[in-house]
Design a protein that fits this description.
This protein has two domains: 370 residues, Glycosidases (TIM Barrel, Alpha-Beta Barrel); 70 residues, no CATH class. It is 40% helix and 10% strand. Strand 1, helix 2 and strand 2 form a beta-alpha-beta unit.
């Protein structure tokens, strides 16, 4: 059925990459490395655990592992706000897999750390990073890495970024992790005499930072080799932006527009827009050096990945920017797109993506969700770059609001039930499907001078409100009835009508899409429902079907914990629940699950093996 369905991809600019990995249907799993663990893990999943994850993929017919970013985040632990887009985070090092060192003197200390930071706790205790680094320093002091030819080759091959990264890390450490913009002028601007003095005074510290990166490089590269030997592809996640307080920005200040902060314009979820804080790229300056920064980043990532995901790909075409002089209280309101002229967006995006395609063997994939100008989809299709089709959002908007048949999904895409920024399948069904976000609806009311407290009891069943989700009163069966109860003119409230039409009866529409009866969905045993949803997304015409690991595993026994907590990130919030989720079972447990046979059968039936 699909034998030649994707041959057109070989004729795109990405044709060489497609030819290398094969233009065939695949199934994938998306997972943060910090969320998995094995019996050998210490406090957090590590690079060595990827080999066990490869074994699980082989048992289930999955052939793509999509990782969240594993770049060095310092001590902020936000994967999309890293201190380097090159360096790996040493907290993912497997201590017992270090090379060219003797671990015998440190057996007791490793045992002590393992006891203090047992793997498999409900949330990651990120103090594990400091504990690992302290022990790694002791181990490093007993090594003779400077004489290792492979270490020397690593330093030479990665001179573009490694020297500046090591300097940045050492200076930050000696300044109590102060952001580089607060450093003295000589440090901020890398004055030659000051840099030479640091290199002389802290030579061992600098070598240590490079040694950590070398060890990470060797472990991650070993994991990729194992994956490829077992016909599994690794997909990396390359964040579009980098932290303002990063080695990249400090060492290449002319490559960034430091007077601007990137963000997002006002939309239906954020009435003030968003202000993320990372600086926008100065592409004009980067282009003058033949895009060396971009090329080197891809060159290094090739060591670990077969494919890479471009986060926030729309930013390649245009990015929303806010002057730093604007007050924080305005969020992203007082900003503008860069480039300002929308007639430039298409060619701007095409140029940058073409540079990326031509300078790496990895296949580019794109996160193209949100408010996206049409030129983005046009260029991605033209260049053979897969986007993302989210099952719960692929609907006949503005007409029937029905869920679209999976045969209508884009072929050049990865079909998914949810991303790391979304609720799991079962949490969506229990708490979000058929409901409206309370804060969003309140914003709509404020915009129209409607007193939310007065009208809410008339249109919502407030006794059912949970997790800030509002349930419509079932007797409101059309928008006119809704407008009447709210006391407003419907002609001035199309956005509220869209909210109502897109959510009222959503559960029934989804069941119709699945072809099952409501009575078959058992709250205490939802495996049949989840199985049908996974089958449906896998049946899509999209070349890839990539699901969150906990959605795959929800076919079995994950529901001993609150499904709402099965989430990696709650966007727009600052919480210790973000970027700390750990699966309630080890990878060894996953390998023994009977449901693996069911997952493999789904992939076989949908021709993804």
């Amino acid at each position: 059925m699909y034998e030649k369905a994707y041959d057109y991809l070989l004729k795109t600019l990405s044709g060489e990459q497609w030819g290398k990995i094969g233009n065939k249907r695949r199934s994938g799993v998306a997972v943060p490395l910090f969320s998995v663990y094995s019996s050998n893990s210490i406090g957090i999943g590590d690079f060595a655990d990827l080999s066990l994850l490869v074994d699980w993929c082989n048992a289930t017919g999955i052939s793509i592992i999509q990782l969240l970013p594993v770049n060095d985040v310092g001590f902020n632990f936000r994967p999309y706000d890293a201190q380097s887009t090159f360096a790996l985070d040493p907290m993912y090092l497997a201590l017992e897999q270090l090379i060219d060192v003797s671990l015998k003197p440190f057996k007791n200390e490793i045992k002590k750390i393992r006891k203090s930071f047992p793997a498999g706790k409900e949330r990651i205790d990120y103090r594990i990073k400091r504990a690992k680094l302290n022990l790694l320093w002791k181990i490093f002091e007993t090594s003779d890495a400077s004489r290792d030819p492979s270490f020397e080759r690593f330093r030479r091959d990665n001179a573009f970024w490694l020297e500046d990264y090591a300097l940045f890390k050492v200076i930050k450490e000696k300044n109590n992790e102060m952001a580089w913009e607060g450093w003295s002028e000589d440090l901020k601007h890398k004055q030659v005499e000051t840099v030479c003095s640091i290199k002389e005074t802290y030579s061992d510290n600098l070598v240590f930072q490079k040694w950590l990166q070398w060890q990470s490089f060797e472990q991650f590269r070993k994991a990729k080799k194992y994956a490829n030997e077992h016909s599994i592809l690794l997909m990396g996640d390359l964040p579009f932006l980098v932290s303002r307080d990063s080695a990249d920005v400090w060492s290449h200040q002319d490559y960034f527009k430091l007077w601007l902060a990137a963000g997002a314009p006002p939309d239906m979820l954020y009435s003030k827009g968003q202000r993320w804080g990372m600086p926008a790229y100065n592409w004009e300056n980067i282009s003058r050096n033949d895009y060396d920064y971009l090329k080197e980043k891809l060159k290094y990532a090739e060591n670990f990945y077969d494919l890479y995901r471009i986060d926030h790909v729309v930013g390649i075409f245009r990015v929303w920017t806010i002057p730093l002089s604007e007050s924080m209280e305005y969020g992203g309101l007082r900003g503008a797109f860069d480039p300002l002229d929308e007639n430039l967006w298409e060619e701007h995006g095409r140029t940058l993506l073409s540079v990326m395609i031509k300078n790496t063997n990895m296949l580019a994939c794109a996160e193209d969700l949100g408010t996206i100008p049409p030129c983005t989809f046009k260029v991605l299709e033209e260049l053979g770059i897969p986007g993302i089709d989210v099952q719960r959002w692929i609907r006949d908007w503005d007409k029937s609001y029905d869920f679209k048949d999976p045969g209508l999904y884009r072929k050049t895409a990865a079909a998914t039930i949810a991303t790391h920024d979304m609720s799991s399948l079962w949490a969506w069904w229990l708490f979000e499907a058929g409901t409206v976000d309370e804060e969003l609806f309140k914003r709509k009311c404020r915009e129209k001078n409607i007193p939310f407290e007065n009208i809410a009891p008339k249109i919502f069943d407030l006794d059912k409100t949970l997790h800030d989700r509002l349930h419509w009163k079932q007797e409101i069966t059309d928008p006119n009835e809704l407008f009447y109860r709210m006391g407003i003119d419907g002609s001035q409230a199309k956005d509220i009508a869209d909210l109502y039409l897109g959510t009222y009866g959503e559960n029934g529409k989804f069941l119709k899409f699945l072809g099952i009866e409501e009575s078959s969905v058992e709250e205490k045993n939802p495996s049949n429902f989840i199985k049908r949803v996974l089958e449906k997304v896998s049946e899509s015409s999209s070349i890839y079907s990539i699901q969150l690991l906990h959605d795959w595993l929800s076919l079995d026994s994950l529901f001993d914990i609150d499904p709402w907590e099965l989430r990696i990130n709650f966007p727009g919030t600052i919480s210790d629940k973000n970027w700390s989720f750990v699966l309630p079972l080890s990878i060894e447990d996953m390998l023994a699950m009977p449901v693996n046979i069911v997952i493999k059968k789904i992939n076989e039936q949908t021709q993804r093996i």
